[in-house]
Amino acid sequence: MRELSIDVPMPARELNVSFGYQCNLTSHSNSSLGDEDSDVPDLLEDGIVMTWHSELKTRSGSFSCLSGAALSANATLANTKICNGIIGDEILPSIDSPKSFRRLSSSPSLSRLEIDNIDGEEKTLKPWSAPTRTESSSFLNAVDAQTAGGAAGEDRVQAVCSEENGWLFCGIYDGFNGRDAADFLAGFLYESIMCSLHNLEWRSKEFQSPNSSEAEFFRSGVIGCLNDAVSQAESKFLHMVEQEMEDRPDLVSIGSCVLVALLHMNDIYILNLGDSRAILATGGARDGAPPKAIQLTETHTVDNQLERRKIVADHPNDPRPIYNGRLKGKLKVTRALGVGYLKERKMNDMLMGILRIQNLCSPPYVYSQPFTMSHTVSENDHFFVLGSDGLFDFFTNDEVVQLVHLFIQKNPSGDPAKHLIEQLVQQAAENAGFSTEELFTIPLGRRRKYHDDVTVIVIMLGNKQQTSTASTSLS
Has this prediction a pTM greater than 0.85? Predict the structure, then answer.
């Protein structure tokens, strides 16, 4: 492993936008929700990093703080309002221009929907009036939740926490060929998961089984909720693409990887589609050695031999399902939301000329079945790192964990996610023969030659962690 530095400075102008939030359960009503008097501009400009500071002290004590950072490389078009304006008008403005972790107000979509049980199993959504606080479950209580989010190129990121009920939701949506799929996920997936968890919580109260414990029933149910939400998101997104593809045929090529982490009490649940990763840092601290890195996600690309063999086996009549290192010569990821032209012939037929796949023998070639897992946090676990693939273009899993570990040893109140971004920018500049200042003069879009959009979240575990403050950054 190469030697890693932890003290490389970044140009001050790149890190000059900051907002704050602190949570205090003992005086909940007096919690600060940011610096209202700040004269820092609200909107992002190219090359500026926006930060959130957040200390998360939960009643259950399973996580202590959250740090996140994002870096743009791609220039993207304005939101297309694919959901009849709901996403563009009601959700994304607050995500594109975040100020701080803030109270999650009554959701514009959840306030119009409720879950209806049919025979205790099937679920439908129907209009309702907004619930009162007493009707809310711990997973569907907007009064007690704080939220933050952001956009970096075609990446989207969300973080929602409830100090009172001890849960944290994080989502990283790494869009490609456009931002529509990532935008859709930012507006749909969290609320869909929360609705399913609300239903699961109701069912777990009625739990009676001689063969398994209530905790096992609940853990299995959470995994089911995550899978169901992704399935619903895929179906809804492709339906909207089909409705609009005659006017916008480019929609059939737009997709997104998905990485979700849900920390509830002492259990963390992970879901991924694509090549974003979740890394656990565990063990090693007692003897002075750095923690070891354990990857909690699968890597869904043609470079993964298991995925490659599955593709070949599923398409026995296609002589070239993979060529030029890509599915049908087009895409490296083997699982993703959207990218309909590699899933349905009618969507492929909307493309013209060389964009169309001429021999789409047996679709789908890209799958939407996610990988899911759960892990019970132990005293030996130190932190999780969630990252889009741009982070791992530059660092191995072990290097990521080492960078975070060394940083928090020297900077116990510092920002490990922003530090990872700083190190990545330094490495990208060195690889290109530039200074970091010169790298940031390259316009978005052209900068993609030197690094991808990168989104990172670091979740510090337990109440004994050295880090007392952290931030979420966005460039």
Answer: no
